[in-house]
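As agreed, record copied across for absentees:
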Amino acid sequence: MRKLCTLLFAAALLPTTALADAAAGKQKAVVCTACHGADGNSTNPLWPKLSGQTSRYLYLQLRDFKEGRRKDPLMSPMAANLSREDMLDLADYFSSQKMASSTYQVNGAKVAEGKKIADNALCPMCHLGGFSGQNEIPVVAGQHYEYIVKQLKDFRARARTNDAGSMTAYTQGLTDDQIDALAQYVTNLN
């Protein structure tokens, strides 16, 4: 009995993604491909690349869309009917894909300015070096420039607030030019 209790306790501590099924997620992702591409690499620069994100981040974003903590006219209805299992499977599938490199033509001076802004704001403390993300913090390196700009502006305008306030607080002091430079720097990191 003691061994059984120990095993059950240990199983409860496993990350939720241990219950996910990437193969099932691939099948469930068929509807997602219209916007996000077959492997999670959207070709529309206003829609994010999902490939290579951490499964935890993807799951939390789907859950936030489903529960109304994050709103989007396209995504909110798509997530509304997803079960927890669906969200875990989709997150596991897209996290196992490789993000395509950005094709946005950056301005070298803007990239350098963006790096300074990021370093001064200590962005790598959460997003890690190279903006490679961790746990519930997204990978933003190589993400679409237009998507990055939109998210930063949404945080600044408090139109997106599902981040416990960190990004909202940080973006309050950013100008449009600083957002442009920061986005050019981040999309340049492939």
Notes: The radius of gyration is 18 Å. Residues 103 and 144 are 8 Å apart (CA to CA). Confidence is low (pLDDT under 50) at residues 3-17. The chain has eleven helices and no strands.
